[in-house]
Amino acid sequence: MTAPTEAEIRKAIAEAWIEPGVASSEARDAIDQALFGLASEAERALYAVDDFRPSETAAAAVDEAVDQVLDGLAPLVAEALAKAFVTFAAEHPDAPRAREAVPA
Q1: What residues contact residue 8 under an 8 Å CB cut-off, 6+ apart?
Q2: Structure confidence by residue, pLDDT tens digits, 47-75
Q3: What is the C-alpha end-to-end distance of the chain, expressed in Å?
Q4: How does DSSP classify residue 94?
Q5: What are phi and psi of 16, to 5 degrees?
Q6: How far, in Å, CA of 33 to CA of 85, rounded?
Q7: Radius of gyration (C-alpha) of the chain in whole angstroms
């Protein structure tokens, strides 16, 4: 058995992260929640949010910022994971494969 090629690695990452699916949705939801938690803490450090009027909320701006982060994050995640798995494949060329090599 041979190590996966870089093309196979990138295809697997795309299927798991970039293309819609359970794993990508769970990862995005977890990151989304973490970013909103961070934003909430920052907002509370900056403002007396309990005293806000209903119209005074940063939610729309935070939502837009989180969407921008998530959109920009996909290629960064894909590239970082590809580098990691290419390195692993080079270091462990005989590691058991989950499936036979498929054209990328």
Answers
A1: 101, 102, 104
A2: 998 898 888 888 888 889 988 888 888 88
A3: 17
A4: T
A5: -85, -30
A6: 27
A7: 20
User: Is the confidence at residue 96, as pLDDT, over 60?
Assistant: yes
Global pTM reads 0.65
Closest CA to 9 of 93, 75, 82: 82
Contact between residue 3 and residue 87 where contact means Cβ atoms under 8 Å apart: no
User: Residues 86, 6: contact at Cβ < 8 Å?
Assistant: yes
CB 74 within 8 A of CB 18: yes
Task: Return d(Cα 16, Cα 28) in angstroms, integer.
Answer: 11
Cβ neighbors of 66 (< 8 A, separation 6 or more) are 32, 35, 36, 39
Q: At what angle do helices 59-91 and 22-46 cross, to 10 degrees?
A: 130
- Both structure tokens of 90: 């080079």
Q: Residues 6 or more apart from 81 whose CB is under 8 A from it?
A: 9, 13, 17
What's the token pair of residue 81?
């994971």
